[in-house]
Design goal:
Blueprint lengths: L4 E7 L4 H11 L2 E6 L2 E6 L1 H10 L3 E12 L6 H6 L13 E6 L8 H18 L13 E8 L2 E7 L21 H11 L7 E4 L6 H10 L21 H21 L3 E6 L2 H14 L5 E5 L13 E4 L10 H18 L4 E6 L2 H5 L5 E9 L2 E9 L2 H7 L5 H20 L3 E6 L7 E6 L2 E7 L7 H18 L7 E6 L17 E6 L2 E6 L13 H10 L4 E5 L5 H8 L4 E6 L2 H13 L7 E5 L2 H7 L6 E6 L4 E2 L8 E2 H13 L2 E11 L8 H6 L2 E5 L1 H4 L12 E7 L2
Parallel strand pairs: 5-6, 8-9, 8-11, 9-10, 11-12, 17-18, 21-22, 21-24, 22-23, 24-27
Antiparallel strand pairs: 1-3, 1-4, 2-3, 4-7, 6-7, 12-14, 13-14, 15-16, 16-17, 19-20, 25-26, 27-29, 28-29
Catalytic activity: guanosine(2069) in 23S rRNA + S-adenosyl-L-methionine = N(2)-methylguanosine(2069) in 23S rRNA + S-adenosyl-L-homocysteine + H(+); guanosine(2445) in 23S rRNA + S-adenosyl-L-methionine = N(2)-methylguanosine(2445) in 23S rRNA + S-adenosyl-L-homocysteine + H(+)
Main location: cytoplasm
Family: Belongs to the methyltransferase superfamily. RlmKL family.
């Protein structure tokens, strides 16, 4: 009778119940589920079968020894007590993989060295030449610390079992074969399922694994390298008999099966890779791959199982396209796959909500370090009724705003305008139009609103925008706008370079819709910019806190004699120079100065005078390159006094800021011999009229 071996099968978090059932089916004895895998006993036959047939395990480990950790210095001697000559030939190199931590073993390299020392000491004591260590060795010793116990094993698998051998090429976001198998199992895949479809097939992993399940093909049948081939107890004849048995099972199932799988992807290159992978896996005759967009996929004649792993959209800027992709997937499932079973693996629970389908079961599965959600759907008539019962108050508001404001903008001569600004309080975001682009800016949710609820509402807003308005998904971008301080201020986004040129009263501006929290053009200040232009003909103009110099362009195009733009940022001033060039403005009369505006004002001689000064400071600023911290409510009089030193006798300061509930200190202003006319109400155009406190604008002059 064959000796029972103590074995441990490792797996990804969440796969343990699947692996438990699988090991019992394979023939394991006393299978025990634990975190990260399952213990089981079996003969050498069961050890081989687990390697050959497990769809969920990463490695099959043979326990060699175990000891309590009392003294670290004693570990090599404990390891040496194992009969290593029965494990591997010292002529073969080996490697130790050490996992876990202990107060006395804080580094895996140190732990691995303790194991290596014990092995080398054993062979040295046997009087044979010590084996060498090689990171590519076929003999892999796996050591693991749990609490105060150290266990060491021989890795019978060698390379991880998720490497089946058929996928030598892959797409940009490959799904591990073991995860694909787990997804299929949770989705209800079995030998009785005759049709499987994946409209996001990539390199084909899901449909290939489905075919292997349907056709009773062992997942290890394509592999050529195994850890146990260097094991001294390896029985080649037994292993060969199990391979032949597996091949016969596959041949028998293939001859009788009516299974067929369909995979499609928009990328022709990865579809070609999928075909090659299917060929290597031996299941190409049972699969059809096509190059097409998900929205054009049609359901095969026979109903079955649709299972897919759509893109997660993890990178900044991909959120909108990913969200709308899921919405279109939901529509596809309802329209084309009615009556099917469907399973969708998503990186975010809120993505699944965008499908607008009621799931019958959900599972959490780990895709590497990323926790994913798998949802199963029964595509019955009830699903269609469920999605049609939702209120469309938001959609009605968006359509109403768009119809009204689009006509106004065209008549006004502006191609950048605000469409929506938290009109409905639960949808706390602003939406701006820039030509045929939309920029969605999410405001920080109140603290009493759970993050998941806020995110779901935001994505419902985006979903509705795409459904009700004529804007393509690839022309929408999402930004998170919240109150910022310190280093967060003006924080740059992940570069995407999404730019366009917009028009405003005959002036052109370059805007960047993706790379900064602001686009380079403050839309609510357009009236102030036009007013500055009206005041500038034949006059000397100073623009402080110039940003991208949009106000300076208005002044220059309206015939200003001189325009000086001052800002602390070289990036924004260079942007401003591009705006000047875009409008055909060149000449020495246009000056761009990089400086701290407050410090620059202090350093200027009073003899230098300007007829018009545009002063649009930030509400708060503490840039490292500024000498002072600017708080506009506290400091506005001081700032106006500094600017007034450079103002000609009949000059005008247009002073604007965006501080909510700002109050001009008229008493102190009068003490500085200045007076102000409040232009705020007339400066707020119709697209910002819903929020009267969006900004404040004053016309400041010397007191008569």
């Amino acid at each position: 009778m064959s000796q029972h071996l103590q074995l441990f099968a490792t797996c990804a978090k969440g796969f343990e119940p699947l692996l438990f059932d699988e090991l019992i089916e394979i023939g394991g004895i006393e299978v025990k589920q634990t975190q990260g895998g399952c213990w089981f006993q079996g003969t050498q036959r069961e050890a081989y079968l687990a390697n050959l047939w497990s769809r969920f395990a990463n490695r099959i480990l043979l326990q060699l020894g175990q000891c309590p950790i009392t003294q670290v210095s004693a570990i090599p001697a404990e390891v040496q007590a194992t009969n290593w000559s029965q494990v591997f030939d010292p002529a073969e190199p080996f490697i130790v993989d050490f996992h876990g931590r202990h107060p006395e073993i804080r580094h895996t390299q140190f732990g691995a060295q303790l194991i290596k020392d014990g092995i080398v000491d054993y062979f040295r004591a046997e009087g044979v030449e010590r084996p060498s260590v090689d990171k590519h060795a076929n003999v892999r010793i796996y050591a693991h610390v749990h609490k105060d116990t150290l266990t060491w094993y021989l890795d019978l698998s060698g390379e991880s079992l998720h490497v089946r051998g058929y996928r030598q090429q892959q797409g940009s976001a490959p799904l591990r074969e073991t995860l694909a198998a787990a997804v299929l199992k949770r989705a209800g895949m079995s030998a009785t399922v005759n049709t499987v479809c994946d409209p996001f097939c990539g390199s084909g992993t899901l449909v290939i694994e489905a075919a292997m399940i349907a056709l009773d093909r062992a997942p290890g049948l394509t592999r050529t390298h195994w850890g146990f081939t260097s094991w001294r107890q390896h029985q080649p004849e037994l292993w060969q008999s199990l391979l032949i048995e597996a091949q016969e099972r596959f041949a028998a199932a293939s001859a009788q099966s009516s299974f067929h799988g369909y995979g499609s992807d928009y990328d022709a290159q990865v579809v070609g890779i999928a075909r090659t992978n299917a060929q290597r896996a031996g299941v190409a005759d049972f699969l059809t791959f096509s190059t097409q967009e998900m929205t054009t996929v049609t359901a095969p004649a026979e109903q079955g199982l649709l299972v897919c792993n759509p893109p997660y959209g993890e990178r900044l800027g991909e959120e909108v396209e990913t969200l709308l992709l899921y919405r279109r997937l939901g529509q596809l499932l309802k329209q084309q796959f009615h009556g099917w079973q469907a399973s969708v693996l998503a990186g975010d629970e809120t993505l699944l909500k965008r499908l607008k389908l009621r799931s019958k079961k959900k599972y959490k599965l780990m895709n590497g370090a990323l926790e994913t959600s798998l949802a199963n759907f029964d595509l019955t008539e009830e699903q269609v009724e469920f999605t049609q019962s939702q209120s469309n108050d938001l959609g009605n508001r968006l359509k109403k705003n768009y119809q009204k404001l689009e006509k106004w903008a065209a008549k006004e001569g502006v191609s950048a305008w605000r469409l929506y600004d938290a009109d409905l309080p639960e949808y706390n975001a602003a939406v701006d139009v820039y030509n045929d682009y939309l920029v969605i800016q999410e405001y920080a949710a109140p603290k009493d609103i759970p993050e998941a609820v806020a995110k779901d509402r935001l994505w419902h807003l985006i979903d509705t925008l795409a459904q009700e308005l004529p804007f393509a998904a690839d022309k929408m971008t999402l930004k998170v706008r919240q109150r910022q301080a310190g280093k967060q201020q003006y924080q740059k986004q992940e570069p995407r370079g999404l730019t366009t040129v917009v028009h405003e009263y005959g002036v052109q501006f370059e805007v960047n819709l993706s790379d900064y929290l602001d686009t380079g053009l403050f839309l609510d200040h357009r009236w102030a910019r036009r007013e500055l232009g009206r005041l500038s003909q034949g006059r000397r103009v100073l623009n402080l806190f110039a940003y991208t110099c949009s106000a300076s362009v208005h002044a220059a195009l309206n015939g200003a004699e001189e325009v000086v733009s001052v800002d602390l940022s070289r990036t924004y001033l260079q942007w401003g120079e591009r705006n000047f060039a875009l409008n055909g403005l060149r000449g020495r009369q246009y000056d761009f100065i990089q400086a701290d505006c407050i410090q620059w004002l202090r350093e200027q001689r009073p003899q230098q005078r300007f007829d018009v000064i545009f002063l649009d400071p930030p509400t708060f600023s503490n840039s490292k390159r500024m000498d002072d911290v600017l708080d506009i409510q506290r400091d506005h009089i001081h700032l106006l006094k500094l600017a007034a030193r450079l103002l000609s006798n009949n000059g005008v300061i247009l002073f604007s800021n965006n501080k909510r509930k700002f109050k001009l200190d008229e008493a102190e202003l009068a003490e500085a011999f200045l007076q102000a006319e409040n232009l705020t109400e007339r400066s707020i155009s119709i697209d910002f009229a819903r929020h009267k406190g969006i900004h404040y604008l004053f016309k400041v002059t010397h007191r008569e």
